[in-house]
Amino acid sequence: MIKGAKYYIFSSFFKYILINIFIFIGLIWLSQILRILELQNSISNQIFDVVKTTSLILPSFINPLMPYLLLLGSFFLNYKINTNNEIIILKQYLAIKEISNLILFLLLGIILLYFLNNEYFSIKTYHKYKIEELEIRNNLKLGVPSENEFHIENELSIFFDKQEDNVFYDIEALIYQEGQFIKSNSVEIEISKKDFNLVFLYGERLLLNLDEKSKTNFDKFTYSIKNRDVEELLMDKEHFNTFDLLNHTNKEFVNHGHNRIYQYILNIFMIFSVFKIIFFYVPKSNLYNKFLKIFLLILSLQIINSYSLYLLNNEIFNIFYYYLINCFLLISFIFTLNRIIK
């Protein structure tokens, strides 16, 4: 019976955490898709690549959400066993020793998963996401082919018979600024540094402007569109693990590394708090009020931490005061939590 009770608590807790992950991450995923598309491009041509690419950033969002996921998981489980009076039965079968062992096992499991995601998996997927996101954004800036036509505003228009990836076949192109008309077998679009290159193969070029009038045949002709705002990959804080952040030359990156250490400490505190929340018993009418107070308590804790990090980045105070303030807040959190659920 004891093993069954342990399994019930363990599986139910993780079930509610996973439900909340799917809800929150799903909403974030949708917002990321809309952010990249910017609601002004042909969704039908881009949606598959955008959905696939944005899925790579989702592990990075689990890390800052972890305290709230733990909290909501414990809320839902407590509400379930409170409303069904299962909490009384569970308390009868689970002694302090069994509860302590369950806490230790859960602590090690969650911290291990959190650590692996925070230090390795989310970093790898985030780096891949940024590369693919930039490729999509640069392609969207270049334009979206539709109905056998491809237009780059104020630059050129291409009319083609068929398309495969970034290659267009049996094309006719009009380059506005230089007064050029090109007819060729194919054209391939390449993005190189800050240029968009259009590589025409096997065709003829007609040049008609005030300076020159000519007609030439070519095997290969490259036309570059310069000075367009092509985005480049910048290494931000999410590209690095905690050790690399702490040894970074940029002070803000170092401070972000200390913030990650604090988040580890906070989540350890949260796991111990979770079991107090799961097993506290109050009348159903008071549950929502207590849940709301605890949630606002965690939210306030994170808001103050964010502001402390802002002050640290602006050298208002040093790292000692950052840890001192947050340690005081964590102790205050435990004290206040005990008063709420006593």
What is the first-to-last residue Cα distance?
A: 27 Å
Q: Biggest sheet: strands, sense, closure? A: 7 strands, antiparallel
How many β-strands, per DSSP?
7
- Give the overall silhouette: elongated
Description of the structure:
The chain is an alpha+beta fold. It folds into two domains: 2-140 and 234-340, no CATH class; 144-225, no CATH class. The chain is 63% helix and 18% strand. It is built from nine helices and seven strands, in the order H-H-H-H-H-E-E-E-E-E-E-E-H-H-H-H. Strands 1, 2, 3, 4, 5, 6 and 7 form a seven-stranded antiparallel beta sheet that branches. A hairpin with a 3-residue loop joins strand 1 and strand 2. Helix 3 packs parallel to helix 7 and helix 3 (58-83) runs antiparallel to helix 8 (284-313). Mean pLDDT is 79; it is low at 39-44.
Q: How are the SSEs placed, and which strands pair?
A:
Layout (H helix, E strand, L loop, with lengths): L1 H36 L5 H12 L3 H26 L2 H8 L2 H47 L6 E4 L3 E4 L2 E3 L2 E9 L4 E13 L2 E14 L4 E13 L16 H5 L4 H29 L4 H30 L5 H22 L2
Antiparallel strand pairs: 1-2, 2-4, 3-4, 4-5, 5-6, 6-7
Helix pairs in contact: 1-2, 1-3, 1-5, 2-5, 3-5, 3-7, 3-8, 5-7, 7-8, 7-9, 8-9
Tag the structure with descriptive keywords.
elongated; 9 helices
